[in-house]
Structure formats: C-alpha cells, structure tokens
Batch of 2 targets.
Target 1
Amino acid sequence: MIVLTLNGRERRLEGLDPEMPLLWALRDHLDLVGAKFGCGIGQCGACTVMVDGRAVRSCVLPLKSAAGASVTTIEGLAEADGGLHPLQEAWIAEDVAQCGYCQAGQIMAAAALLDSNPAPSDAQIESAMAGNLCRCGTYLRVKKAIRRAAGGERT
Amino acid sequence: MSRPGFNPDPGLLELVEYAQGARANSFALARLDRRRFLQLTGAVGGGLMLGLQLGGRSALASQAADADADSFEPGVYLKIAGGEIVIYAPNPEVGQGVKTSLPMLVAEELDAAWTDVRVEQSPIDAERYGRQFAGGSRSIPDRWEGLRQAGASARAMLIAAAAKRWGVPAPECETAESRVTHPASGRSASYFELAAEAARQPLPSPDSLRLKGRGEYRLLGRRLTGVDNRALVTGERLFGIDQTLPEMAHAAYQKGPATGAVPRGANLEEIKRLPGVLDAFVLEGNGNVSELMPGVAIVARDTWSAFRAKAALEIDWDESGAARDSWADASARAAELARSEGGETLADRGDVAAALDAAETRLEAFYQYHFVSHAQLEPQNCTAWVRGGEADLWAPTQTPGRGLKSVAKTLGLNPSRVRVHQTRAGAGFGRRLVNDFMCETAAISARVDRPVKLTWTREDDMSHDFYRAGGFHALQGGVDPNGRLSAWRDHIITFSHDGKRPVVGGHLSAKDFPGGLVSNHRLTRTLLPWHTPCGAWRAPGSNVFAFAVQSFLDELAAAAGRDPLDFLLEVLGEPRWFEPGNFWSLNTGRAAEVVRLAAREAGWGRSLPEGRGLGLAFWFSHAGHFAEVAEVSVSAGRKLRVHRVTVAGDVGPIVNRSGAENQVEGSVIDGLSTMFGQKVTHEAGRVEQPNFHRYPLLRMPQAPEVDVHFIESDYPPSGLGEPALPPLAPAVANAIFAASGLRVRTLPISEEGFTL
Ligand code: FES
Ligand code: FES
C-alpha cells in the first residue's frame, strides 16, 4: 500500500504496481486527468505536477517514489471554495491556450516557480519553463500570464 | 518492379485540394448554397431552436420533421431556453479557436450578450451541419454566411414576437445584449421572455435578412478568451485521451517497424500472463493504411499495464511487403537528378532558356527539406464501445465524418449504426485528418466486446505518422540588365505513392509564386517512389515551397545588387487579382500591401549592428496574404538568436482578435521550431526519431517576440490556422544571410551547423 497526500487529502492506494508512474495512477486510477501524457520520457512536461512543492514530470516518477509525499495536480490548484489560483485567472485573462493540451503542465510548472520565487525575472521564467513544450507555440502568452500572476495580489 | 506505396485513401488528397481552394468552390458558390438552406424551427421546452442547414434533405422531409416536435434533435446551431443561449459549434476544435470564433458569428447577428452564451460542441451529422472538419483553414470562410444567417434569422423572429406582443411595427424595434427594445414606447423584453413566442413566428426568408456591415459589429473584432479556457486551466475532462466509460479496458497496439509489416507470430501467451493484462491478440488489418494495418493488440486494466506489456512484446515480422524507404538513398538520387530536365512539365511560359542566356545575373541553387512529423502533443487515441452491431466513438479527430465512414467500413457496419462524439483535440496540424487510430480502437473493442480506450505511445505516434514529405528544388534564375527578374526555372523532385501523382504536399503548381509573375517560367517535376504514407502538414506544400522559392528570390536580389523589398514588390507588380472572385487565387494588390506593412513595422532599411540582419518573405496560401520580417543575429559558431518576427497579414475582417493573434504567434513559433531542428529520416522503412529526445521542439527561451499586424480589408474573412506559417522559414533564412552572408539551403538548418 502506498500512502500519499493528494490535493490536500490523504489517499491510500492499494493493489497498484509501485513501479507505475504517478501519471498513470492519477489518470487511470484516481480520476484526475488534468496531467497529460505527451512523451513518457520526461521531455515535454505535459505531465507536470507538484511533489512537495517542486515541479515534477509524473510520467517518470514511480508511484513508490511519491509515497509519503504531498502531490498537487491542476485539479487541486484552485482554492477549496472554487476561487481560482492567480495563475489560472491570468491564463484566462491572457487567453493563453491554443489546443490546451500542454497547459495544465505549464501552469503547474509556473505554480512551482512562483511558490519559490514570487517575482521572477524574464530569464528566470524562461529557465523554469524550459522543460515544458508547447507544440502550438503559446510561449509568449505563457510568459505574459506568469508575469501578470506574479504582479497581482494573491487572495 | 517496385511495390505500390501505402496510399492514404484518395479522400485525403481530395480534402486537401478542397481545403486549398483547388477544387471548384468559392464564396460565390457558398452564396448559391445559401438559397438552398433548409430551416428547421419549433418550440422545445418553451424555447426557440433554430438552425439553418445546407441543402441535401428534401423539403418534404423537413416538413415532416417540423410537424413532429419530438423529432427535433439538438442538431441545430442555436437554442434559447432556460435563461441561456446555447450555440452549437459545428467544427472540431483542435487549437485553431473555432469553438469560440464560430459561435461569435451567430452571436453577432443575434445581438446576443456574450455572457449569456454557452457553447456546446455539436453532434456529428452531415445532413444537418454539412462538412464538419478542421482543415485547410476552412472553418471561418465555409461557415461565414451560414452561421451569420442563423443568428440573423433568430433575431428577426425575436423582433417579430416582440412587435406582435407590443402591437408595434417590427422595423421600429431594436436589439442589443439579448434584448429587444422599442425606443418609441420605451418597452423592452429579454430574449428569454420572448423565446416561446418567437418559436411560433414564421421563418424569415434568407433574402429578407440584412446582415450587419463592418461598422455595426459589436462582437467581431474584439478580443475574447476561449470558451473552454476555464475548463482547461482547472484540468477538466475535455480531450479524447480523457474519456472514460464504465467497464472500460485500456489498449495498446503495436504495428510493424516499417509500414506494411505483418506479424507472423508473437509471444502472446507470455504477454497474457503479465500483470494487469486482460488479453493480447493479432489483428490482421484490412490493408488500408488509413484504416487498419496489421499489428498486435494488448488489452489491459490500465494504460501502464498495456504499455509495459507492449514493451515486452516479441514479434516476428514478415516485412516482404513492407516499406523499405531510405532517405539517404532518395536524397542521393535527387542530387543526381537535379540537373536533368524533369519528367513532367507543369508550367512553360515564355522562353526560359533564352531569358537565362540574356540575363545579366544568372544563378543556380539546390534546395532541400527533410520529412517531418506532426508531433501534436496529444498522442493518437480513441475510446470506442462496439456492441450489438453498433458503435460509439469518442475521438480527437479533424474529420469526424470521414472517421465515422472509415470505422463503419472497418467493422462492416452500416454508417447509420456508428456514432462519433467530438472531443477537444490536443492539436492536429493535419495528422488527425486520417483516422487510423479510430479504426484500430473500434476493431479492438469489437474483438473484446467491451469499451476500450486505445492510447498510442509517443513512439507509436512518431513511427506511424502521415509525414510531411521531404523534397528538392533545382532552381535557376535570371535578372535582366535592368535589374528585373526575367527567368525562373524550378525542377521539383518530390515523392509519389503510386508513380503517377505526387504525395500530399508535393503538388507545386504553375499558380504558385512566381507563376504568372515572371514572363519566362518553367516548372518541371520528377517523382521518386515512396511507400511510407505522407499526409497533410499545416499549410501542405506551402510550408516548404515558400522556403525554396522566397530564399532563392532573395539570392537573386542580392546577386543583382537589389534591395530585397524593392525586388519583391517589383515582381508582384501592379495590383491585379488573378482569378477575380476566387479568394484562393493571388491578389497582388493585397500582397504588396502586406509586404509594405511588414517592412514598415519592422523598420526595414534601418542600420543594425554587425552580425544582425533583417530578412523578408511573402507567401500566399489558404486565401491569406502574409509577409514576415525576421530580425536575427548570427554569432561565432553559427549560433542564432531570432529576436523578433514582424508579421503582416490580410485575411479580411478579424473575428476573434485574441484567437487570431494567437494563431499567428503560434505559426511563427511552429515555423521556427520546424525549420531549426526537426527532421524525420527513414532507413529500411524505419523512422530514426522515435521520441522528442531525437526530435527537438522549440522551447520558451528560444522563442522570438512576435509582432502581429492585420490589414482588415473588406473581403470576406478567411482562416488563420495555416497561412502565417509558410513565410517564416524564408524570412529567417534571408535574415541569416543579411546578418552573416551565409546562405541556408537545407531544412532543418541544424543540418548546416546552426544552433539556436
Ligand atoms: S509526458 Fe511526462 S514529460 Fe512528456
Ligand atoms: S496549446 Fe497546444 S500544445 Fe500547448
């Protein structure tokens, strides 16, 4: 049995292969499909979630390595009362998405960045986000949305 | 002697030709169709439902439908009921923004408050919605008339209801923000209050409706955020890969290492004993590469178990009938053929040989580009439930209607027994015009008799694409003593699956630039055999032709000592529309305007530091005229920095400005991503780039600033998914030359030692 904290709630996972990447446990067994499968080898960032506050590629993180950790997915980013995270608000305001497939991963990478560095420079944004591919090319808007969220007040 | 290639079905070529306007179709034809619109209306739950559809069903059938209110399916564009206005988006959303922009057309003419609007994806139903596909940048031009008519008709009926209720003449009523008002008497009612009465009003004839002029738009041209954005940023279940059904199993499918390989045998018994695996079996396929090719299916309780078992497969492949394509061989052969005449003559205007002899400046160059993959971020997947002679499919596809037919054929079912449900797609770029993944899922679900979701690995996706074909151009050009372009000679060497026609994307024609613009022009073609399927990749053909043609034009300008901007404008010449009334033909007036605007906005001609330069290129495709100027630095070791790309485009009036700018920004970044390091090479029919570690996509630190300008001419609007992409590669290549004197003639440019 693997125990972890998922979006603030303790979850006990039974009968799952400890080698299974966290991504597939989330998507197929925990009904959380926000993290996406893009490459399976840690190259694209579509599967990014936060593990103990760090942005992690869940497609290459075996479930056993997440045991005891606190995992936040895009579904757990908003406030409990449904109020959106400033990044989510900024993403809507900047109309970032095209196809949208990479966007949950982008937002989670950005959330980890702002948690550790609430006012990042452009260069810091670029290096923190370099692991997240957007095939549709929305990078300019991702950057703008992060700047907007960083400049705004957190409620 | 050579085996036939695995031809994607002819429908793909037809679709691409339709998308590019090569097939008979135009706005004029769309107007004729409008008169054949059938209208369906009636009350449903006290609300108003109204739709306009393309002809195809007899008037009798539509009357019968009207008589029976229960037969009213939600197959219409619009529903006003329960305090909301539901608008049905008819075309698939693959990132091009049509789930927002198409409903805006309805809402504009309806005078709906956008905050009252909820958008739903419409069902797939060709009878009601006509062609429902995402391709060729066709959604906006194809739906421009029909959707505005739908909104205007509903508005007229709401006004009629209000006028009747108040006993006032309808022409005295006005509408705005989901309300009808009668200013003279100060009366006002919301659309929701009027919906039930509006449903009982006679349908206005399409000719009685006056659609708004440009100056009257309240919604069009504004910046609206995408209707799915809230769901996207909260991780809701939107995409194909997110679908689940009760009792659903998860599948993986292993096809051959080269297209057409057939499994002779596999370690199925061992695989079936692996944890989580429910079944494993061979599918023979139906021989159609667009439908079902042979392979081994694994059905498991979750995706991970299916993938892990797939990795443990040992399959004995019979490759006697499989593709053996080799890029190394093909490119060597093309280099040999470069100086030959070329088998087919596609254009022969004036006397190229004489003009080259008489030229003051004469150049020859050989350009080439590799195959590339679509690499949309959501791998192919589908969820299907086949039972009792019926099938339901949830699929991220660009062509749901074609997918439905392909599945029916694969399963041997009547198409009326197959239903396709649209999901959002994690981009398409042309890959999802073909629905092999739907057929595979349907076949697996039929075999195991339960709902199944098939997910391809990235390796499956990269290895079984319908690739953008590589190609080669042997070019010669001449500039006369007056400094004018006087001769253009292009021998294109491309590929063919059947030895007769080029693959999709290899169809350079006499109409493409500089066809019709230079008095001595000769275009010939050689086809090399290729078996692995090729397909449509964002702006097919244009995405590579623009590179060769606009780079060589820049070479000629430089060799003749001309300014590239002046030289290009001179080639475009006087404003003229090659086929007046056909928006898919070049209009040199619109072209020159975008070229001038891009140059002005980019500061063309300003002095730049050493090692930094501006490059200009123009291309016309998908009814869009686009010019781009790239500003690039080249430092020691061929290290590039693309600082900024200035884009000027004319696609008529802009529908959703935010979405439009997003498409252009994305086209620039996609264009740079692709030209910089992407290539797919085949050897022995096998792809050598199985995943992103061998296939670099542009990352945020490499992305340039993009400065977008639209000329909002009064022509009807055309689409934006594609036409901003083609000029990017030559603009960057020409900027590299301006910065460094180095001329790039190969894509990707990493082949010439450049890094980004
Ligand atoms: S799916 Fe995890 S990095 Fe690509
Ligand atoms: S929006 Fe499509 S991959 Fe980023």
Note: Chain A has five helices and five strands.
Target 2
Amino acid sequence: MIKIQDLRKSFKNIEVLKGISTTIQKGEIIAIIGPSGSGKSTFLRCINLLETPSGGQIWVNENEVTNPKVNIMKVREQVGMVFQQFNLFPHKTVLENIIYAPMMVKGISKSEAETKGRDLLKKVGLSEKENEHPVRLSGGQKQRVAIARALAMSPEMMLFDEPTSALDPEMVKEVLEVIKSLALTGMTMAIVTHEMGFAREVADRVLFLDDGQLVEDAAPAEFFSSPKSKRAQDFLEKIL
Amino acid sequence: MNLDFTQITSSIPYILQGIGVTLKIVGVAALIGFAIGILLALCKIGRFKGFKWFADIYTSIFRGTPLILQLLLIYYGTPQLFDIKVSAYTAAVLAFGFNSGAYISEIIRAGILAVDRGQLEASMALGIPYKKMMKDIVLPQALKNILPALMNEFITLTKESAIVTVIGVTDIMRRSYIVGGNTYRYFESLIFAGVIYYLMVIVLTLIGKAVERRMRRSD
Ligand SMILES: Nc1ncnc2c1ncn2[C@@H]1O[C@H](COP(=O)(O)OP(=O)(O)O)[C@@H](O)[C@H]1O
Ligand SMILES: [Mg+2]
C-alpha cells in the first residue's frame, strides 16, 4: 500500500506538485493522466525518490520513505520503474540487463538470477533474445526487456512513466499486453499514460493531474463518461 | 651533402634497446595516469566540495606548467625535500603519470558527463549503489566513448617521453644522441630515432583503431 499525503515538489522556486494526497491499495492499478507538464512524471518519481519531495509524506507499506533517516536504496528495491526511453544498459546483453541488479543489489546467486531472468524473458515473449544487445531490439522489445528487468527485483509495486510514448504505433500493443498480463498477477501499479482505451480497460482508478494538482480521482467508467471538473472535460475533449 | 647511414649500423642495436626503456616508462606512466585520471574525474563529478577543489587545482597546476619543469622538480627537487634518492626512471614515470593523470581526468570527466542521464536514473531506480553504478554502468560506457581521446593521450605520452633524456634516462632519444656524439653522425642517428618514434605511433594508432572496432562490434 502506498499512502501519499500533501506531496509537494518545487524546482528552484517553481512549485510543480502542489499538495497531492491519495492512497494506492495493494493490487490496485492506477492510471495517471493529464496534460504535458502537469507533474505526472514528477509525481511518479517522488514515489521512488528519484526526486526528493519538498514537502508532504509518502509511505510504502508501513515505512515512511520521506523520513530523512530511511534507506533510499531499500525503498527503490521495492518499487520498480519503467521509463519512456527504456534506459536499458547498452553494453550488457538482454539477460545481463535483467540479472545485474538482483545479483548486485540483492546478492542473489548468478544461477538463480539467470533462472528467474529467463523465466521473466519467457513471460514477456523474448526468450530467444537473451544474448542480444539492446541496440538489436525494436522499441517494443526494449520496453518489454525493461519491464522484465524491473520485475527481476521482485518489487512490491511498479511505476510506469509513459511506457509506450516512445514507441512506433505498431509496437504499442505488445507492450500494453505485457502490462495487462502483469495486472492479472495482482501487481500494484501506477501508470502514466496517454492510452485512454488502455486506462479505461485496465485501471481501477484514474488520477487526473493538472498544473500540479490532483483534480480528479475516480473510477475509469465515471471519469471518462462524466468528468466532474471543467479541466478534465476540456482535456478529454481535446484528446478523444 | 654528407650523409652515410652505414656509419651508424653497428650502433643500431644499441639504439633499438631504447625502445624497451621508452615503452616501460610510457606503459607504467599510462597506468598511473589512468588510475589518477579516474580518481580525479570521480572527485570532479562527486558531491564532496573538498575533493572537487583538490581535483580542479591539481589539474590546473599540472596543465598550467611545463612538463619538463615537473620532471626536473621530481628528479632534483624531491631528494632536497625528503631524504630520498629518486632514480631517473622513477622520476620519469612519476612525472609522466602525474601529468597525464591531469589530462586523462578531463577526458574521463567529459566521458562520464556524456553518458545518458537515463542510465543513472535506471540504475538508481533499481537500487544500485553509487559505486557499483559508476563501476559497472557509467564508466564502461564512458570509456568506450573516450577511447579515441585516451589513445591520443597515449600517443602524445610516447612522443613526449623523449624529454626524459634531460635527466639521463637512456631511452631511444638519449641513445641516438649518444651515438650521434660518438660517431659525429648526429643527423643519421637522430633521423633513425625519429623513424622509431614514428613507427611506434603508427602501431599505437592501428592498435587503437582495432580496439575501437572490436568494441563497436560488441553492440
Ligand atoms: N529537473 C527539473 N528541473 C526543473 N523543472 C523541472 C524538472 N523536472 C520537471 N520540471 C518541470 O516540472 C513540471 C512538471 O514536469 P513533469 O512532471 O515532467 O510533467 P509531465 O510528466 O506531466 O509532463 C514541468 O513544468 C517541468 O518543466
Ligand atoms: Mg512526463
């Protein structure tokens, strides 16, 4: 469970998150949508402390991760993240990408990490690519490897920051399918996305962010059919 | 014109033995320089202000004064300060190592900064500690990008090593100079030394290109 209370973040003196509060239950799938620059990425990145919040509190399970005494590394082990730009390690093979962190961070043996890595590769449909370097993969394949890499750490929760925005249209589906299958396993997830159909289908809840504020927090059916705020109405009108 | 290379033939083996001396100085100095370069580069990009200052000042001084001055200071100056005798070889290796460390640190620093920020974020998101991230993720990528620049530095080092002559190290340069003096054939023996240096540089360049090609093929 993730609990977020009055989360604030400023860059220099510009406040880009203006006090966001919400709770994400275990196994819940959250879609985060909103205009570009509204603070979606910053919100996500505060959860695994890639950005240091300027104010407010975040709990991951019982641990307050915004407590200055907390071990940031331990928090990050529990929260997997998938980036728009994949960020695979180009000098490592697909399998090496996946097993590196479990071995180095969790101290899992190489053979165990490989077994688990191969299992994950099979789940994302890329078993035959384990010895390739990332340059040899398509965008969709890279993103599936990135998902497997994050899962290899056995995180409590997964964060996705526009996982399909850098992909050619024909590759969006294969990545969304992987995320959907992950949803079925009961993984807690927060997904920033512009894929409204996907959000509607997969998410338990939609968070609509605008200008650093959490403007709506609703079930997808409700949000997409009858958004309450003017800002959400305008946004949906523009993109649908 | 009075040129006769046959006059120095009997001294050719003697001059050639200098190649080993030169290579030993350049090789050890390069290792020292590389180690210092990595350490300084990490200081420069790190969080600790004190280390950063030290690294910047170090670089500034070693780049801002003549190499020959650094060499002479180490060779003649150290025994005066501390009660130890520094051999010419040690002085040469230290001077070149310290000096190239300054240049290499700048090369590596630029290489590290050129690594995509996404690589750092992905590493942090996976909980990879800073040291391991640097060693296994950032530096390998940085080194690959800067390999040509490092090779250049190595080539410069090979040529510049000729100044160890002034403290009496019998490298290629000094040997050819001695032969020149003994035979009164300075031109021939110096040209011969020039040819050796030139061939060494060509070989190094080819090795560099081959390594680069290999690394590029690996991904
Ligand atoms: N590292 C940063 N430094 C300064 N400003 C930033 C930084 N990261 C994000 N911002 C600003 O914060 C705002 C929100 O950015 P972001 O969270 O990336 O929005 P979104 O993901 O919704 O497009 C933007 O105005 C952006 O320019
Ligand atoms: Mg964003």
Note: Chain B touches chain A at residues 116, 118-119, 121-122, 124-129, 132, 136-137, 140-141, 144, 218-219 (CB under 8 Å).
